[in-house]
Structures are given as structure tokens and as C-alpha cells.
Specification:
Blueprint lengths: L3 E5 L6 H15 L3 E5 L5 H11 L8 H25 L3 E5 L2 H11 L4 H12 L6 E6 L2 H8 L13 H17 L4 E5 L4 H14 L6
Helix pairs in contact: 1-8, 2-3, 3-4, 3-5, 4-5, 4-7
């Protein structure tokens, strides 16, 4: 979907900071763009997010988790993404469907084909034009942030899970290189932000 750009990466890679910094930059340029996130982004979807990420819900079934992500995505698209795109705005989203592919399909072992099929129903034609992938291994990411957030149910999963997620992203990128902008996130925050802006200029999303 044209003008729909998503951001992906392992936990702790710095997506939240980078999207916030990009939002401030777009505001300085006077660009009429929308920034949102998943899971969440709208009132009902944010309520689903709390259920998904609550560390007290450790007994949640993996397939239940996958369906909750898809449910939040449906609501988020309806409330935020579709109206903004229909109005001709550029939409930047912190995580989207590729997170489900690698976290539930590969990390949880539910099967990539199953999660793709589920999200084909949830997303329809609203696949991102391209995805900015912040490339940093989970080892480096957690070391930089000082360990996993124990209040976050996903971050608290054993490390082998996060390794599967990272390799899953790499596999998706290898299979669809034109749909990704891979950003080396091993440098400083400022260096990573500069690389993101350069990629968005190349793609014609930001002005030169």
C-alpha cells in the first residue's frame, strides 16, 4: 500500500526512540504525516495490547496470542491507518504484520504459513509499501538496554526465542529484499536516525 511504511526490529533495538525522533523531524519540516504503533494505536487496539504484553498473562496460549495481535491489527487499520491513507497522508507504523510472521510464526513455532494466512484475513490489501528494519542482534540490543523488561511478557521469553525472531527477520528480508530498507543500528542513536532519513529520501518519502 503506497505511503504506508512500517518499522521492524528485535526487542530493544530502539524503534520507539527512532520513530519518535523521525516524528519530530517531520514536524520540523511541516509534513502532514501520521505516526502510530502496533499492537495498539487506537483505543480498542490499545486495550488488546495491554492483555498481550501483561507479564501476568504468562499462561496465554501461543495461538491465542497470534489471534489477539491480528484482532488488534484489524481495529488499528480501521481506526487509524485506512482513514489516514484515504486522506492522502503518509503513515509510519512502529511494528506491523512482519512482527507476527517472525514472533508467532517462527519464534513461537506456530508456522509461518498459518500466521500469513491469518493476517491475510486481518490485513487484506493493506501491506506496507516497504519496511525499515533496524538491524541489531538481540544480544547487542539487550546488552545496550541493560537486559529484558521483566514487565513485558514478550521480552521475558527465553533468549533462544529472540534469536529465532532475528533469524526470521533475516529470512524475510532475503526473500523480499525490495520490500525492506535494512538499517545498521549498531551505531549511535544519531547515526541510526541519519541512516533512516537517508533511506526515506531514497524512497521518495522525505524531501531531499
Amino acid at each position: 500500500m503506497r505511503n504506508f511504511i512500517t518499522f521492524e526490529g528485535c526487542d530493544g533495538v530502539g524503534k520507539t526512540y527512532q520513530t519518535r525522533a523521525l516524528k519530530e523531524y517531520c514536524q520540523q519540516l511541516g509534513l502532514d504525516v501520521v505516526f502510530t504503533r502496533e499492537p495498539g494505536g487506537s483505543d480498542i487496539a490499545e486495550q488488546i495490547r495491554k492483555i498481550i504484553l501483561d507479564a501476568n498473562n504468562s499462561a496465554m496460549d501461543d495461538m491465542c496470542e497470534a489471534f489477539l495481535y491480528a484482532a488488534a491489527r484489524i481495529q488499528h487499520l480501521k481506526d487509524i491507518v485506512k482513514p489516514a491513507l484515504s486522506a492522502g497522508k503518509v503513515v509510519f507504523c512502529d511494528r506491523f504484520v512482519h512482527s507476527s510472521y517472525v514472533y508467532q510464526g517462527l519464534g513461537r513455532g506456530l508456522g509461518l504459513d498459518n500466521i500469513v494466512a491469518l493476517n491475510d484475513i486481518a490485513v487484506g490489501d493493506y501491506m506496507p509499501e516497504f519496511t525499515v528494519f533496524l538491524d541489531l542482534s538481540p544480544e547487542q540490543a539487550f546488552m545496550r538496554k541493560g537486559g529484558a523488561d521483566k514487565t513485558d511478557r514478550l521480552e521475558s521469553v527465553d533468549f533462544s526465542f529472540h534469536s529465532k525472531v532475528y533469524q526470521g527477520y533475516k529470512s524475510l528480508i532475503q526473500a523480499n529484499p525490495d520490500k525492506f530498507e535494512v538499517i545498521d543500528a549498531s551505531g549511535t542513536r544519531e547515526q541510526t536516525q541519519a541512516l533512516i532519513r537517508q533511506a526515506l529520501v531514497r524512497r521518495g518519502v522525505l524531501p531531499c
